[in-house]
Amino acid sequence: MPLSLGQLNTAHTDQALQLLDGIYEHSPWIAQAALRERPFRSLAHLKHAMAQAVRQAGTEAQLALIRAHPELAGKAMVAQSLTAESTHEQSAAGLTHCSPEEFARLQQLNRDYNARFGFPFILAVRGPRGTGLTRAQIIDTFARRLDNHPDVERAEALRNIHRIAEIRLNDKFGAEPLIGGDVWDWHERLAQHSDPGYAEKGQLTVTYLTEAHRACAQTISQWMRECGFDEVEVDAVGNVVGRYHAATPQARTLLTGSHYDTVRNGGKYDGRLGIFVPMACVRELHRAGRRLPFGIELVAFAEEEGQRYKATFLGSGALIGDFQPEWLEQKDDNGVTMREAMQQAGLCVDDIPRLRRDPAHYLGFVEVHIEQGPVLCELDLPLGVVSSINGSVRYVGEMVGMASHAGTTPMDRRRDAAAGVAELALYVEQRAARDGDSVGTIGLLNVPGGSINVVPGRCQFSLDLRAPTDAQRDALAQDVLQELLRIAQRRGLRCTLEETMRASAAPSAPQWQQRWERAVAALGLPVHCMPSGAGHDAMKLHEILPQAMLFVRGENGGISHNPLESTTHNDMQLAVEAFNHLLLQLSLEPA
Integer distance in angstroms from the first to the last C-alpha of the chain? Predict the structure, then answer.
């Protein structure tokens, strides 16, 4: 019979320790420290308490915990001396049935890893879905993590230990995150659609109105209907819109959603998590035959990433009346205009102005999104509440000096354009860090026609500056642009700079942020509020509606815009439960 929180909360300390035995490998001190937080309000609370015990224990205790774990397919497995839990996990992953080549590869990786880090490689082999990684996935991850910095790898080992503990606690308490598993599966199934040139390589790329993009729209439409939405349509810009009616006619509507397009060779969860979490909530309402005092409108935005055309936030922009007619004449890399792409997709350009929403009909906008950063991962927190979406400004520029012979031009006579941009990059790094929460990036740096033996005469570059408030962003930009002029003058260079994008900061509406905070607290989790460094559809809806966002922790250090982007079915389950709690709060509030 599964263990219950009530049993754990009321058990004598010695009995409680016995009940939690084996959750962390050969380390009963973790349960002992965590039990001081009883009574646990939820299983998520217990998991966090145990992770915090490890976090607060210090480096030596953390290393001892890592070293208490066996190697994968190592000596302990061969000698059959693993704990029952490790035996089950390694066997389920097929490590007891390795081919001779796989076993030899794992043995070599174990040797290399131990020589580099001084502790065994730790991987939660049951994976983010809880159903197990393949041997190929295990070996690939093993090889990739060998390149990590030792501090980074120690943190990654501990995160995998916490994931192992989470799955063991799920088993012990009979807690299967079924809805989170469905949400995870939807992501996997939608990721089968990818643009040509990437699909063949097993990479995910879905850009605006390609065949893969249209297939995604049709798939999402079908799933919305299966989940019980009353109305489903693909609108004039390709957004997939699902509506779940309120209990009474004329009631206002909660607007939610995110985007389904991707960057090139991106991850499966960026944007799409904000579609599938509310979709799961509507499904459960429909299954229960329940209507709310307000309607729910879920929009899977067709475009946010700006990959095929220069227009960004095209999907959410159309909802606030910010679709620029000149965008229709933009051409992609193959010379296809946006107008032509829309016509080929069967969209009616003339209907775009009608997509504008009337704010009077809506309560507000909420968006769930994978964090796309390391903060929640490093804090061992599955959820975070967004306090503001950073304001940003982008530029493209060119530094012009004088191309000259690399061997004959003395260092004090050079007009090196690339060196000037490099100096600017170092200044941006230093100046943004001074604020604590500003960021600055020179992501593109190109020397046209460059040669190994030529001092660069031209250097093209980009500049991306972001901060939590517009005033802080503008102060950062002013300092950076002044330094750019000083660098150019001192080095005898000429610089041109063009502003290509400016987006205002979007602070969360206090009342909506507080709803997310209450939802997270109701799950028994600490509430962590944080700014979003990335832009989101919410920052467009912010122009007409109050908005607030919920972040979900990412795996692999929180990496995003990368195939390694990932999260777990447990964290997805918590996101669904938080969204449901937000719906409950709204239902209980006076109309």
Answer: 44
- SS3 (DSSP) at 363: strand
φ/ψ of residue 51, rounded to 5? -65, -40
CB neighbours of residue 140 within 10 Å: 12
Provide the token pair at 84.
């029952």
Which residues have C-beta within 8 Å of that of residue 129, sequence separation ≥ 6? 181, 184, 185, 568, 569
The residues with which 305 forms a beta bridge, in sequence order, are: none
Give 359's DSSP letter.
G
If we measure between CA atoms, which residue out of 285, 69, 97 comes closest to residue 161? 69
Please count the other Cβ atoms lying within 10 Å of the Cβ belonging to residue 489: 11
391-400 and 458-467: which strand pairing? Answer: antiparallel
Q: How far is CA 372 from the centre of its chain?
A: 3
Q: Which residues contact 450 (CB under 8 A, 6 or more apart)?
A: 418, 456
Q: d(Cα 235, Cα 501) in Å, to the nearest integer?
A: 26
Could you tell me what percent of the chain has a pLDDT over 90? 92
Phi, psi of 497 (to 5 degrees): -145, 135
Interval 422-437: pLDDT, tens: 999 999 999 999 999 9
Mean pLDDT over all residues of the chain?
Answer: 95
Is the Cβ–Cβ distance between 129 and 567 less than 8 Å? Answer: no
List of residues 6+ apart from 357 with CB closer than 8 A: 255, 319, 320, 544
Helix (H, G, I), strand (E, B) or coil at 502: strand
Question: Is 130 within 8 Å of 170 (Cβ atoms)?
Answer: yes
pLDDT at position 77 is: 64
Nearest Cα to Cα of residue 466 among 474, 457, 458: 474
Which of 92-101, 117-126, 151-160 is the least confident region? 92-101
Contacts for 289 with CB less than 8 Å, ≥ 6 apart: none
Number of Cβ within a 10 Å radius of residue 540: 27
C-beta of residue 512 within 8 angstroms of C-beta of residue 548: yes
Tokens of 409: 């031009």
Q: How far apart are alpha carbons 531 and 118 in whole angstroms?
A: 36
pTM of the predicted structure, to 2 decimals: 0.91
Q: ∠ at Cα 515 (511, 516), nearest 5°?
A: 120
- pLDDT digit string (tens) for 492-529? 999 999 998 888 999 999 999 999 999 999 999 999 99
CA-nearest of 273, 452, 284 to 366 is 273
* Pairing status of strand 404-405 against strand 494-503: unpaired
Per-residue pLDDT of 438-459, as tens digits, reads: 999 999 999 999 999 999 999 9
- Say whether pLDDT at 130 is over 70: yes
429: three-class secondary structure by DSSP: helix
The residue ranking higher by pLDDT, 88 or 159, is 159
Q: DSSP letters of 58-71? A: -HHHHHHHHHTSPP
Cα Dmax for the chain? 82
Beta-carbon contacts of 509 under 8 Å, excluding residues fewer than 6 positions away, are 364, 546, 547, 548
Can you say how many angstroms the Cα of residue 494 is from the centroid of all Cα atoms in its chain? Answer: 39
Q: Are 449 and 400 in contact (CB under 8 A)?
A: no
Residue 409: how many CB atoms within 10 A of its CB? 16
Q: How far apart are CA 399 and CA 288, in angstroms?
A: 63
* pLDDT computed for residue 374 by the predictor: 94
